[in-house]
Amino acid sequence: MPEASRASPGRPHADAEFPADPYPGAVPPFSFVHIDHARKGGHSHPLTFDVCWRIDGAELDLWLAGHGAPPLAARVPVLSYGSNRNPGKITWLRRKLGLTGPVVVLRARTEGLAAVWASGFRARDGQRTSVLGAAPGASEQHAVWLATPEQVAVLDRCEGRGDRHRLARLGTGAVHTDDGLRIEAPWSYLGLSAIRRPLLVDGHPVRCADLGQDAALGLDGAPAPDDGLSATTVVGAPDPDDWPAAVFVYGTLQPGHPAWPQVARHAVGAPRRATAAGRVCDTGLGYPALLPDGSARAPGWVVDVRDPAVLLRRLDGYEGPEYRRIRVSATPDDGPPTACWAYAWAADQGSLTPLPHGWTG
């Protein structure tokens, strides 16, 4: 795989800094937002992370809103292991297939998964393509698109969903983005037709990390019977509310509090004590408010849930316009950090007062 140029993460980078050929193309060594500037063409704007993702110091959600684009909570994580991580390919998707809006691409580390050479070639230029396969013990650098449903529809056309590839929720391996968050069951395009199944050479797949495009063109082998992955095929458009399947509750939604029954009917297993980055304040209205803050830890509970989209529609109505729904990383007392939905205060903060240290609701 070609190496990305030695780019400084502090400035926007033009597509030309990351050559698209040979496939799969060079990849920025940082998380980024790709934008199509009318006069300058495609540029990748580096992202940083403290308590949230930021672009040029601004909270990414606020920046997206300023560009008329959906927030992160309205996007789904799509694991990208081939050319869709390359900025020039993203611009190609804009020009050829009508991709619109900022494209959020987070660098990610995978475990137990690998990009391997596929049995077939790319129709437009004859280069061999990659496909995802199970690879016990392997660790690779890939990326996760936080994609809107409309952007997924463009990827569907590019990847030949239902023909060359299937869109599925991964159950094999582990995926962690640069902020340390584990992405449970990400969406990914997996090989479906024979030309998009792993190529077996002497009975074994060949990792793209081990062999470049020029050498891969000359490989001789046969399509594997399958990719070895456990994955559930997705029907229809993905719903951003389906990920993650957990909520972080800290106020009236906590176990034993008045609104807990709304969550309890969807709970899977017992709730777990946890903390998330933030401060819980008193609104003076009989319920607290969460303010994201990387210097403090807010106490609460992690609750794994079934049918998260159904639950969230009810909770959105319960919380009302004073709160905005965000995704957070919460750390249970008995386990590693996990992605959760949470409701952060969105109204005026002037009336908020800090709750005493050690408050647990």
- In angstroms, what is the radius of gyration? 22 Å
User: CATH class of the largest domain, anyone?
Assistant: Alpha Beta
Written as H for each helix and E for each strand, in order along the chain, the element string is EEEEEHEHEEHEEEEEHEEEHEEEEHEEE
Q: Remind me, CATH topology of the largest domain?
A: Hypothetical upf0131 protein ytfp
- Overall domain count: 2
Supply the number of helical segments. Answer: 6
Roughly how much helix do the residues carry, as a percent range? 10-25%
Number of strands: 23
Which percent range describes the beta-strand content?
35-45%
Going by helix content, strand content and strand pairing, the class is: mainly beta
Describe this structure in words.
The N and C termini lie far apart (51 Å). The protein is mainly β and 361 residues long. β4 (53-55) and β5 (58-59) form a beta hairpin. The strands form four sheets. Strands 1, 2, 3, 4, 5, 6, 7, 8, 9, 10, 11 and 15 form a twelve-stranded mixed beta sheet that branches. A five-stranded antiparallel beta sheet has the order 16-20-17-21-22, covered by helices on one side. The model is unreliable at 1-8 (pLDDT under 50). It has helices at residues 60-66, 87-97, 149-159, 213-216, 260-264, 308-319, and strands at 13-14, 32-37, 41-49, 53-55, 58-59, 76-80, 103-121, 128-147, 165-170, 174-177, 187-191, 199-201, 204-205, 222-223, 231-233, 246-249, 272-277, 279-282, 288-291, 297-304, 323-332, 338-345, 353-354. The chain is built from six helices and 23 strands. Helices cover 14% and strands 38% of the residues. It folds into two domains: 13-237, Hypothetical upf0131 protein ytfp, CATH 3.10.490.10; 244-354, Hypothetical upf0131 protein ytfp.
